[in-house]
Amino acid sequence: MSDPVIRYYKESDTMAIQLRPWPGDVGDPANVGVRDAGTDLVIHYAGDGLPWLWEIEHASRHPEHIAEALKHISQGDAAAA
Questions:
Q1: Which of 13, 33, 45, 81 is most solvent-facing, going by the fewest CB within 10 Å?
Q2: According to the model, what pLDDT value does residue 65 have?
Q3: Whether pLDDT at 3 is above 80
Q4: How far apart are CA 78 and CA 58, in angstroms?
Q5: What is the Cα–Cα distance from 33 to 38, expressed in whole angstroms?
């Protein structure tokens, strides 16, 4: 797996943590499914139905979301997200 992409948008205090590369054979990333997974946490899914990216709103207030996303990356366990 390639290194995860982690982006922080200071203006909105939003962090996007890519759990895995976009699976190239499952469609356009603009057409992902999403699920509200908790306070200020939205999980984006790829066309294969597995989590692809965590979007953390008000990221500076949610170190627990950041830590959990990084745990899934370190374990290679995007499917459990």
A1: 33
A2: 93
A3: no
A4: 22
A5: 16
Find tokens 């976009």 and name the residue. Answer: 22
Q: Which residues pair with 7 in a beta bridge?
A: 16
Q: Cα–Cα distance between 53 and 11 in angstroms, integer?
A: 20
Beta bridge partners of 42: 36, 55
Q: Does the global pTM surpass 0.90?
A: no
Helix extents (H) in 1-81: 63-75
35-47 as b/e, with b when 16 or more CB fall inside 10 Å? eeeeebbbbbbbb
Q: Are 4 and 53 in contact (CB under 8 A)?
A: no
Helix (H, G, I), strand (E, B) or coil at 54: strand
**pLDDT(78) > 60:** no
pLDDT confidence of 73, banded at 50, 70, 90?
confident
